[in-house]
Amino acid sequence: PKTDIVFLKVHKSASSTVMNILFRFGETHNLTFAFPVGGGNQLYYPHHFLARFVQGFSPRSPRQFNILCHHMRFLQPEVQKVVSSSAVYFSILRNPVQLMESSFMYYKATSAFSRARSLEEFLSQPYRYYNPTNGDRHYARNLMAFDFGFNPDAEVSAKRVQFMLKAIEASFDLLLISEYFDESMVLLKELLCWDLDSVVFFPLNSRDSSTKATLSDAIVEKIKQWNRLDWEIYTHFNRTFWERIDQDFGRERMQREVKALRERQAELARICLQGTGSVAPKDIKDSSLRPLQHGTAKILGYNIKQGLDKETERMCRRLVTPELQYSSTLYKKQFAQKPP
Q1: Which membrane topology term applies here (predicted)?
Q2: Does the residue 60 lie in any domain?
C-alpha cells in the first residue's frame, strides 16, 4: 500500500468524505500528517501553500510527512518540501454548476454573496456584488481553478486553458469526480494499492436536501460562463476519468467493483448506524459527532448504534466522525509528546 500521499482538498466537492478515508488509513497505519501550525483545519488558505505553514517543519532540518490533505491553495515546489518525492498526488472535482449552488448556500456570508438575495440575483449582475480585489472573492468564482493555484479572474483563452490543464496533469496522478464518487474510490484504491475497507465511506459534510435549490437552464448557462475556467477543467478531467476507466479497467470490472463497495457499505451501515442513514444536526445524540454548521446549509451527521463491542464501536466511530473533530484528535495524538 502507498503511504505517501498529497490530496488537494477542493471546496464543496465531497472532499470531507475523502479526508475521512485518509484520516482512517493514516490512523490505522500510524502515519504522520502535515498539520497546519497550531492544528487548525486550513494551511493558511487562501494564501498559496508554503512549507512553513506545516507544524514541525523547519528549513534547517526538513522532515517529511506521509499525508498532506488539509485545505490549501496548491503550490507544488513548496508541497515537495514536506512530502516524499515518491508521493502520490490526487484531487477531486465537481460539476461547477452544483459547486456554485452549494458555495452560494455555504459561503453566504462572504463579500460577494452576502448582499445578493439569490443566486439568480447575483448572476444577473455579478460585478455589482463581486469585487476581484476582495480577499474572499474566490468562493464566488472559479473556486476549483483557485484551489489549484490559478487566477480565478484570468481571461479564458484557449492558450490559458491548455496551460492550466497541462499543469494539473503534470502535477496530479489522479483526479476524482465527485458525481462518480464510487467509481472514484475504486480508481483510488487501485492507484494506492489499498483494500476495499480502506475506501469504504459514509458521506460526510453533506447538506439536507431541503436547502438545495433547483436551477433553471438559463441559470445553469450563466454559471458555466461565470465559472468558465472551472468548466474547462471539469469537462476535460471528467472525460479523461472515463478514458482511464476504459483503458485500465473496463466498464464491466468497474461495475463489479462498485457493486462490492456498495454492498460492503450497506453491511457497515447495518452494523454501525442507528436508523437508515444520515440525520439532521438536531437529531445527532452524541455532540462529538455533530458536524460544524455553516452558512444557511444544514449539514447532516450520524448516530451510532448503542451496545457495540469496543472494536466495532471504534471502527464505526471513525467512519462517522466529522472532519474537524477527527483532525483535532489526530493532531493531539501526533503532537502529544510536546507540551502545548
Answers
A1: Single-pass type II membrane protein
A2: yes
